[in-house]
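Why do we bother with holo predictions? Because pocket geometry can differ from the apo form. Keep that in mind while you read this record for flavin-adenine dinucleotide.
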Amino acid sequence: MSATASDKVDLLRQRVRDIVGPDGVIDSPVDLVVYECDGYTLEKQRPDLVAFPRNTEQVRQLILLCNELDVPFMPRGAGTSLAGGTVPVAGGLVICFSRMNRILEINLRDRYAVVEPGVVNLWITNRLRGTGYHYAPDPSSQGACTIGGNVATNSGGPHTLKYGVTVNHVLGLTAVLPDGTAITTGGKTEDNPGYDLTGLLVGSEGTLAIVTEVIVRITRDPESYRTLLGVFDSIEDATNTISDIIGAGIVPAALEMMDRPIIRAVEEAFHFGFPLDAEAVLIIEVDGLEVGLDREVDRILELCRKNRAREVRRARDDAERAALWKSRKQAFGAIGRLASSYCTQDGVVPRTALPHMLRFISEVSKRHDVPIANVFHAGDGNIHPILLFDERDQDQVQRVLKASREILEECIRLGGSVTGEHGIGVEKINFMPKLFSPEDLAVMVAVHDLFNPDSRLSPGKMLPIGVRCLEPTHPGRRAPV
Amino acid sequence: MIDEAWIETIAAQTGSERVEVPPEWAELVPATVQVVPPGVEALQGILAAANERRCPVYPVGGGTSLAWGLPGEEPGLALSLRGINGVVDYPARDMTITVRAGNTVSEVQETLARERQRLPIDVPNADTATIGGAVAANVSGPRRFGFGTFRDYVIGIGVVTADGKLARAGGRVVKNVAGYDLCKLYTGSFGSLAIIVELTFKVHPMPEKTEAVLVGCSRFEDVEAVLAGSLRSRTRPVVLELLNRSAWQELDSVDLDRDWSIAVVFEGFEEAVAWQVETFLDEVRRWTDGRARAEVVHSPNAASLVQSLASFTQRPTPVLAKLNYRPSMTVGLLEELSRLRGTWLLSAHANNGIAWLAPAAERSDGEIVDELAQLRRWAVSADGNLVVRGASFCARTGFAPWGVERGDTWLMRRLKQRFDPHGILNRGRFVDHPRAVEPRVQDQPEEPETERTATSTP
Ligand SMILES: Cc1cc2nc3c(=O)[nH]c(=O)nc-3n(C[C@H](O)[C@H](O)[C@H](O)COP(=O)(O)OP(=O)(O)OC[C@H]3O[C@@H](n4cnc5c(N)ncnc54)[C@H](O)[C@@H]3O)c2cc1C
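The structure, written out:
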C-alpha cells in the first residue's frame, strides 16, 4: 500500500528516471516487496519507488526532487537492520546504495580509507589483506551489511570489545542534508576544528542526513591471537567467568557466549565439535604481541578454572580459529532449526550484572513458557536473548511480546540500555521515553528538527515524534547477531 | 553593564558562593564575579535566570583552557563548576566511572589508580584542570596515538542546557546506541552548547610497565624512516612524539647534538615492553642505516617523560598553534618551518598528524601573525587546519583562532543557535563569532540560502 497519490508517483518515477537513468529505478510491485522491510519484519511498508544513485550529486538531485514533490525519502544499505531501520514508514522514495559501492582510496601511511556507503563491511578488510591492516568493526553480518548502514547504526561486533565500535573508526563524512545541501564533516585528518558533527551523524539512524562517502580509520593487524573455547556446566559459572575476566582488568579482543540451545543448533549446522551436553560455552580471544600473550591466557584459564569450567580448548591453528568464528558469526542462520519464528532482543547491562540478567532471562522464559536461547557479546554486557515461538499461535505471540518487554525493562532497571548495536529503528521507539527524560528527548528533538525540520527524511524512526506509537502486537521474525 | 545586585540575588537564591574572578582571567572572561553553585539544581537556577535576562554566562572549570577562542566581549557572570564535584558511581569491576564535572582530573585519576585503572588521556595541569573542562576543551596528549581521545571514552553525559534544563545522553554501559550520541557533540564544544555537569567514562586497566626509547635524528629522511617505520614495526608504540631541538632543550635543558628527537613509548605487560624496547632499537638501526641514535628511558622516568611531553601545551606563551595535517606530511612541516624566519618550538603527535607550535622567543605580533598565516595555508594544503590558543593575541591581532572555514562551519553556527538561542553560553568565544573563523578564499557560498544555491561536494 502506498501513501502517495498515484499521479504524484508517476511524476516521481519519471523525474527519478531522469536523474538516475531508467536502469536505476525499481517500481514494479513484485520487486518492491523486497524493500518493504529488513531483518525486522513486524512492520512493513512498501515504498513507492526505489532509486539507485551512483554519486553524491545524484543523491542530492533525488532529495531536491522529493522536497519539490513533498515525498518522504529514506536511505537503505543492505537491509540487514534488526530494528526496522529501513521500513519506509510513510512510503515514498527509498534511496538504495548498492551502486555506490567503490573503495575510493586507501592510504596506509595516513591510516585511512575513503569508501562509498554501499561498500560491504568485509570488503575493506578483504582489500587490505596482506597490508598488515584491517577495518576493525566486525558486525556478525559483515559479509552483507554496508558501511553506510554501519555508520547509521554505529554498529559493533565481537571485536569491538577491545577495538571500539564504528564511531571510533570514522574520521569524516560526506553527507547530504534533507534540504539537499551536501556537507563534509571531519576529514582525512584528526581534530578538525569545531563541533564533532561526524560523531553526531554516526548512529543517527539516517534521520539527520544521508551519508554518501565515509573516511574510515584502518587498524593494524595484531601480531598474534589465542582463541579459547571455555566449556561450562552451568550458565551461572560462565557468566561469573565473564564478570571475573573484566573485573580483573583483562580486556580480551572478544568475549562471546553461547548457551545450550544455540550450541546444539550451531553444531548441527557447522559440525565444529561443540560439546552438546554443555550448558554454555565462552569464546575468548586475546590478541596482541606474541610476547606476554600466554601469560594473559594463563590468567584467563585460571579464572575459568576457578569458575568450574569443565574444559578449556585452544584453537590449534588459523583454520580452527576461522571455523570457530564462522560458527559464532553465523549462529543466527542455525536458529531456524530451533523454531519456526524467533525474536532477538538487544539489551545491554553492566557486565557485573550478567549473572543476574541471565538468571532473570531464564525465569522469564519459565514464567511465560517461551524457550529463550542466548548468543551474545558478553564482554560488552550486550545480551541477545532469542525468543523462540510459532507465529501462527497468537497466544505464544503475546507471551513472547510480554517476555521481551520484561527483559528490556530489566536492562533499564539495571542501568543499561535497550539497544547496544541494532538501533532504535521503528522497533524500540516506545522505549525511548523509558530510557530518557522529556528534557533529554527535547534536546535530541531539537537536533533532529535543525537537520530534518519536515521529517521528510526517514520519518517515524528513532525518536517518538509525530508518529503513532504502536504497542507491537506481533514480535516478527528477527535474526540475532 | 552587569547588574551586580542581580548576581547577588541569584547567588543567594541558589545558595551559591560568590568569589572574585582571578586577575589573570580578566582579559578572557569579562566578569568580575564568579558564582559557585553548590550543586546541579543551583546551577540550573542560575542558568534559567541568566537566560531570561540574556546575561552572558562564562563557565569555568580549573581555568587552564580559558585562553582558547576569542575573549568574551560582553560582561556577564563567570560560573564555576568546582562546587559540582564528587564521584557518583564507580563500579570498578565494570570498568566504568561516573563523576561530576568539577572534580580535578587528578582526583579522578587517583580514584581510578586505587583500583589499578586509569583514563589513558594526558591532561596537563591535572591538579587544576577539571574533568568537565578537559572534556569541553577535548584535551589530549601524546598517548592519543595508542589510546585515542575523550571521544573514545565518554559513554554518558549530563549537561545543563542554556535554559537551565538537565539533559542526559548516552548511559552508563559501554555499548549503547539509543538516541543521538550527544556525548560527541559536547566533547570539544568549549562550553558553548551546554554546561557539562556529569560524565561517565569507560576506563582502562593500568599498564604493568611504561618504558621509552628516545631517538635522535639529524636528517629529514631519518625522521620519516622512523615515523613510517613505526607503523610497520613489529612493536606497537603508544606514543610517538616528535620534538625539534628548541622544544627538546626546554624540556631537558641538555643540548643534544641532534635536530629532532622522537620519544617512543611502550606500555603493557612487563615482558612485552622489554621485548618491544629491544626490538625497536634494532629496527631504528635498520631503518636509518645506523645513523639515528637511540637510547632507552626506563621506568619510572618514562612515565615522567610522557608527563613532561604533555605539559608542552601548557607552557606560557602569547600564542600556541595547533596544526592538524596528514601524518605523512610531517617532514613537509619541518621543511616549512625551516623556511620561516623565526624559530618555533615544535612538539608533534607525529603519527596522528597533530603538531603544537609556540614561538621560541619574544617577537612582534605582526611577524608571528605572518608566519601563522603561512603555516595555516600549509596545514590546509595538508587536508587540515590551524587553530590557536591565545585569546588576547587574537583579539589584538585579528588572527582567527578557529582556523579556516570548512564545509560544515555554517551548520555548526546553526547548531549553536539552536542550543543557545540567546547566545548566553560563552558568547562570541567559539565558532559563533564572525571573526572566530577565517573565511575560505574560494568563492563558495558560506551559508546556502536555499536548496538551489547549495554547493556540491567540495
Ligand atoms: C545475521 C545478522 C547479524 C548481525 N550482527 C550484528 C552485529 O554483530 N553488530 C551490529 O551492530 N549489528 C548487527 N546486525 C544488524 C545490522 O547488520 C547492522 O545494523 C548493519 O549496520 C546494517 O547495515 P545495512 O547496510 O544492512 O543497513 P540497512 O539495514 O539497510 O539500514 C540500517 C539503517 O541505516 C540507514 N542507512 C543505510 N544507509 C545509509 C546511508 N548511506 N546514510 C544514512 N543512513 C543510512 C537506514 O536508513 C537504516 O536506518 C546483524 C544483522 C543480521 C541480520
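Residues 78 and 145 of chain A are 5 Å apart (CA to CA).
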